[in-house]
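Following up on my earlier thread - several people asked me to post the actual chain instead of describing it. Fair enough. Here it is, all 394 residues.
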Amino acid sequence: MDISFKIIFWLLFAIAVYAYIGYGLILYIIIKLKRIFREKKEFLQEYEPEVTLFVAAYNEKDYVDAKLNNHFNLNYPKEKVKHLWVTDGSNDGTPELLKTYPNIEVHHENARGGKIGALNRGMSFVKTPIVIFSDGNTMLGENSIKIIVDLFKDPKVGCVAGEKRIASKQSDAAAGSGEGIYWKYESALKRWDAELYSAVGAAGELFAIRTELFEKVEADTLLDDFVISLRIVKKGYKIQYNPEAYAIETASADVKEELKRKIRIAAGGIQSIVRLKDLLNPLKYGLFSFQYISHKVLRWLIVPFSLPIILLSNFAIVYNIECIKNIYGAILILQILFYFLVLNGWILKNLKIKIKILFVPYYIFIMNYATWLGLFRYIKGKQSVNWERAKRGK
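Reply from S.P.:
Thanks for posting it. Predicted structure:
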């Protein structure tokens, strides 16, 4: 067996393990060490600025009452919270319903320009120093505004990422089980990233920026939240994070709906890496480049396309040395077991069971499969900027 063949196998295998497990372990160790030596920083004690709660909504009539009731009851001085909704393209009565509420600023155009179009247009109406974005179908934690504002006491913080939480039931189908466990792990990584230096991007369910740092994003942008937040990093600011500032939503109704969402995210991730290529330069962005490559770039651009090569090369190596009783045989068995669990998840995908971890391999497979489809859409330019919301579970 050619030694270069084995080198390729080990290189790709190491990258995959590092992307999903190794980086998290390294972060955890570094953070533990950092906590021993860190100095406590003191910032402004009195900081309670006006904020704008900005929702770009498309046909969210079914959620309006619950969403506004949630916003009105957040723990922050009511007179310092401005409520701004942009409802471009909505034709289900969303803007009309919103206008029945007092103190809600609604801007509507009949033409649908996608979420990024609504954000670009709506930011011209924001007059407060901090703007907080959230989706129309998510509910915010009671202290979310207070926690977000507190993180902005640090003048080096230009963006604050909230946590996305998946409403968990005692038993879920494949989409809900895998998604919930995945986001718990992602939240841990985000928390450690922020503690090390900066979180790597923000999720549109809940994030905030200093209004002055916003710059219009290209109209064909697929992941507006990611691009907006990382361009703030390019300006020399950090993205902070506190899991107690959270937005909660139900899981995707089924794997088909989750795949729809993941394909869009994958296409947007590849687009974002191309547009934010400067962040790959550690000579300019130092520690953040390490975080960005480890947490996002490897998962979006390298691992999904490495997995089939790892499996096929593993088969070839074992076949050529005619022995499975070695390290290559052990890895091959683990890979076969993984794909067996993927198949098992596909068979049981519509059943609701309590042992949620059984669906994790299936969810990981769906994520990587979506990246292949997302790449094809990106290359062909067929991914619409108009968000087709995934159906959510009850």
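The two ends are 54 Å apart (CA to CA). That should answer part of your original question.
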